[in-house]
């Protein structure tokens, strides 16, 4: 496995959701798959998955992959107009810790451009137009950042530490989907969030629960 440079999150490393989706797909596991990131996933580097462990050429542990029994709880949807209105107030447009992120970075004209804004109840919502090429990793990526933006605040950046997801389907290229995120709670530097992705007709395409970690000093 190689994570191409375009699929970055923080500078110099892969977007957590995209990489987790690549690792989950490579595992061949069905049902709910959990990926724990032990290091920032390197870009343009051959990675090997063996026995549930993703390692770099030097043997460094990058991630662990396993199947789990607990299915993430669904985050209730909103309609597309509500998601668009929330997205217009996306805080990352004016203050983003990683503006070049492939998924939610406003500087990326070639990214997924998922811009989650807050709803009155504290959830996040954003429209998501599926790209011309859709894969498992695309959906995992879409389920990633909208959860993080339920806890990210000015001067307090978070990064993905662990995500467990189950996919019910893939969007068709060009589909305008809606992705919803919610924070279940924070404990010190750790936050637990959930996300759900919906097709244009309201079908649930995927759901995830994730642990995000505030960066030291934030």
Write the layout of secondary structure elements.
Layout: H1 16-27, E1 32-37, E2 48-50, E3 53-55, E4 61-68, H2 80-87, E5 117-118, E6 124-129, H3 136-142, H4 145-148, E7 158-167, E8 176-187, E9 190-198, E10 204-214
Antiparallel strand pairs: 1-4, 1-7, 2-3, 3-4, 5-6, 6-8, 7-10, 8-9, 9-10
Helix pairs in contact: 1-3
Name the descriptors.
218 residues, ten-stranded antiparallel beta sheet, globular, alpha+beta, 4 helices
Terminal residue distance: 32 Å
Low-confidence stretches: none
Bin the helical content.
Answer: 10-25%
Q: How big is the Rg?
A: 16 Å
Mean pLDDT, all residues:
96
β-strand percent reads 25-35%
Question: Based on helices, strands and strand pairing, what is the structural class?
Answer: alpha+beta
> Main β-sheet, in a few words?
10 strands, antiparallel
Query: What characteristic shape results from the CA principal axes?
Result: globular
Helix/strand order: HEEEEHEEHHEEEE
Question: How large is the count of helical segments?
Answer: 4
The largest sheet has its strands arranged as 2-3-4-1-7-10-9-8-6-5
Per DSSP E runs of 2 or more residues, the count of β-strands stands at 10
Protein architecture, described:
By secondary structure, this protein is of the alpha+beta class. The protein contains four helices and ten strands. The chain has helices at 16-27, 80-87, 136-142, 145-148; strands at residues 32-37, 48-50, 53-55, 61-68, 117-118, 124-129, 158-167, 176-187, 190-198, 204-214. It has a ten-stranded antiparallel sheet. Helix 1 (16-27) runs antiparallel to helix 3. It is globular. The mean pLDDT is 96.
């Amino acid at each position: 496995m190689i994570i191409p440079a375009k699929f970055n999150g923080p500078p110099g490393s892969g977007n957590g959701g995209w990489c987790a989706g690549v690792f989950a797909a490579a595992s061949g596991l069905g049902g709910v798959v959990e990926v724990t990131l032990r290091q920032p996933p390197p870009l343009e580097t051959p990675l090997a998955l063996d026995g549930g462990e993703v390692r770099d050429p030097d043997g460094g542990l990058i991630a662990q992959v396993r199947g789990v029994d607990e299915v993430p709880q669904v985050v209730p949807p909103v309609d597309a107009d509500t998601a668009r209105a929330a997205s217009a107030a996306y805080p990352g447009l004016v203050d983003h810790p990683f503006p070049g992120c492939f998924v939610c970075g406003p500087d990326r004209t070639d990214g997924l451009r998922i811009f989650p804004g807050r709803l009155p109840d504290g959830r996040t919502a954003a429209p998501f137009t599926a790209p011309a090429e859709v894969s498992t990793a695309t959906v995992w990526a879409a389920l990633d950042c909208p959860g993080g933006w339920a806890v990210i605040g000015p001067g307090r950046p978070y990064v993905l530490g662990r995500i467990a997801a189950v996919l019910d389907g893939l969007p068709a290229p060009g589909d305008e989907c809606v992705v919803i995120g919610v924070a279940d709670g924070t404990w010190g530097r750790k936050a637990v969030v959930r996300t759900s992705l919906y097709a244009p007709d309201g079908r649930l395409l995927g759901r995830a629960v994730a642990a995000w970690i505030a960066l030291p000093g934030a």
